[in-house]
Design a protein that fits this description.
Alpha-Beta Plaits, MoaB/Mog_dom, alpha/beta, 2 domains, six-stranded mixed β-sheet
């Protein structure tokens, strides 16, 4: 059985358009390669009620939930306490994290004292599992309710910590990653719709994506699944049926 996942992106800056979310795309790409199916992405603002509603819903429906954002030192960083409230958990300072923040602060400026705002970044739902997969980063990935992984919103740190979970996630998946073939065609989408429907199966997903302002390519078709031989067999049939040719999407950057 395929392991399922969901993502909750948290932050007013995403909903207002100030910041572009790249974390969900990075997560989707990684999970695809691990054979874990990302089923839902929700974006909520910095509101306790909305965060509680989202994580409860996603946690009850999917095997793994990843959150991104809202774990900094300021008043609008409320992810930890909101998720604690969702499951009636206490909030407790983790001494190892507190000491690490204090050490980093002293190293940068020996005359700066710890404040309650520094302590906020070391105060987590309790009980929870604290994962420290990277020896040089003591800020943990906090796991609540067994399947909610709380991650930062800063893309570089999100990616670094998410990458550290790969061995654990691969063990949970216990399957090969998904495999994808892409096909370009000069045929219109409506003209190939019946062919796509006929070749689509429960295990092999076929997607079609119109291309505008391109004289040579009208549609990009994707064929994906975990069985490489099935994907290749259907992709080969489809290529012939729609008079297509192999296509490779340009890689997306993660800023």
């Amino acid at each position: 059985m395929v392991v399922t996942a969901a993502c909750c992106i948290i932050g007013d800056e995403i909903l207002s358009g100030k910041t572009k979310d790249t974390n969900s795309h990075y997560l989707a790409t990684m999970l695809f390669g691990l054979g874990i199916e990302l089923k839902a992405i929700q974006v909520v603002g910095d509101e306790t009620h909305d965060i509680i509603k989202s994580v409860r819903e996603l946690s009850s429906q999917y095997d793994i939930v990843f959150t991104s954002g809202g774990i900094g030192p300021t008043h609008d960083d409320i992810t930890y306490e909101s998720i604690a409230a969702a499951y009636q958990l206490d909030m407790k300072v983790d001494q190892e994290t507190y000491d690490y923040i204090q050490k980093q602060l002293s190293r940068r400026n020996p005359n700066t004292a710890m404040t309650k705002f520094h302590a906020r970044m070391a105060t987590f739902p309790h009980p929870a599992t604290l994962l420290r997969e990277l020896p040089n980063i003591k800020i943990p990935i906090v796991v609540v309710h067994d399947n909610i992984y709380i991650l930062p919103g800063i893309p570089s740190l999100f990616q670094l910590l998410l990458d550290s979970l790969k061995p654990k996630l691969q063990a949970m998946s216990q399957s090969v990653g998904f495999y994808r073939r892409e096909i370009a065609t000069a045929s219109s989408e409506v003209s190939i719709a019946e062919i796509l429907s006929r070749l689509h199966t429960q295990d092999i997903k076929i997607g079609s994506y119109p291309v505008w302002n391109n004289d040579k390519i009208k549609v990009i078709v994707t064929v994906s699944g975990q069985d490489v031989s099935q994907v290749n067999a259907i992709a080969d049939k489809l290529t012939d049926a729609i008079h297509g040719w192999p296509y490779t999407s340009a890689p997306k950057s993660h800023l």
